[in-house]
Amino acid sequence: MEYRIFGRTGVKISPLVLGTDNFANPTPESESIAIINRAINSGINLIDTSNSYAKGECERIIGKALKENGRRNEVLIATKAYYPTGPGPNDRGNSRAHLIKACEDSLKRLQTDYIDLYQLHRPDFSIPHEETLSALNDLVTQGKVRFIGSSTAPAWRVMEGLMISETKGYARFVSEQPPYNLLDRRIENELIPMCLAHGLGLITWSPLAMGMLTGRYKDTGSLPADSRAVLRGGIYAERVTMPAINAGLQFVRLAEELGYSPAQMALLWIRDRPGITAPLIGPRTIEQLEHFLPVLEMKTSAEMMKACDELVPPGSSIANFHNTSGWM
Predict the structure, then answer these.
(1) Domain region containing 28
(2) Has 180 been annotated as catalytic?
(3) Cis status of the peptide bond prior to 26, with omega within 30 of 0
(4) What is the pTM of this model?
């Protein structure tokens, strides 16, 4: 496997990252731990989570798994803060008060002394950016966090953060984690060029477009009962539209014609896009993980890339995966 340099850190990460949003919801603890162990054995060395996944239970499972297998030093842990963790007015957002407490709580659940990558799960426009970056810088100075990043932020907001860090001498964002798949390519317009210009890594989420790129949905009137669009509804259901479903079904046929499985081709397409460090995979089962793992060694083709561009043109979108951002 060819590992990739993560932004300007000098750290090398695998070309697929293990996402854990399914852990404890719906994947049971035992299978979640099996997924972690199999991923590490396959060479995946970055595990991404959040304090909001399953109300912190996801972090607890990761901490337990790494404690049991003794392999904490072989992997990087990335977690996030922003979403509510309690009923109080300060139990959310990117204020100093919330980030400091959220980090301490994550460290306890993860059973570790440090977090490799601590990310702002979403931008918080109600808090001065300088306050947020000052708090993150203190966590880095204290050794509780090694690197900082953001997620699902506009390019200008990430750039503003870099400028403040440069001016104040604070720790600098090393990465951004946006949504990116063939159905929503908008980050190609500004975010990817900005990250390339300033040396930020890009770890991207929802590579399979919630299964629309694997043919999971046939029409909006009969959604699978076990899909996120049904189980979680709301913003997840809003993404599933007939134009997106139709494009996904065309993608499935294209993948079959080119000799790929749709899931593997969707991952492969992102993995080798300019500026991308690695896409997140979020297996619900060990079988899904086994299906994703061959992508670590697979090769792209010019024919595949060209056909994908013809299906959904660069920089465009036919599904809205930024509908959790609060700014687009």
Answers:
(1) 4-210+262-300
(2) no
(3) yes
(4) 0.96
